[in-house]
Design a protein that fits this description.
This protein is mostly helical and about 80 residues long. About 55% of the residues lie in helices and about 0% in strands. Helix 2 packs across helix 3.
């Protein structure tokens, strides 16, 4: 599944250990390792915490889009007239 690849890539880009990510989102190291290995999948609250931690949107983390932005383009600031 795409989430395993995305988690590994995001973690390595930030030069973080698995343990550091697990601590940051308040789960056990083993649970985080399961997500990266594809042995298990995060609950919705943990999934949201992972997206927040890596500062990406949920669709990117799930592999539904390649756009990492937290806000969809329709919600970005627009010029005032």
């Amino acid at each position: 599944m795409e989430i395993t690849t995305r988690l590994k890539t995001l973690r390595k880009e930030r030069k973080e250990s698995q343990e550091r990510v697990a601590r940051a989102i308040d789960i056990t190291l083993r649970n985080y390792q399961r997500f990266e290995s594809g042995e298990g999948y995060p609950s919705y609250p943990v999934f949201c915490a992972l997206a927040d931690h890596f500062q990406v949107n949920l669709d990117y983390l799930a592999g539904r889009t390649d756009v990492r932005d937290m806000l969809p383009p329709s919600l970005e600031k627009t010029e005032e007239i």
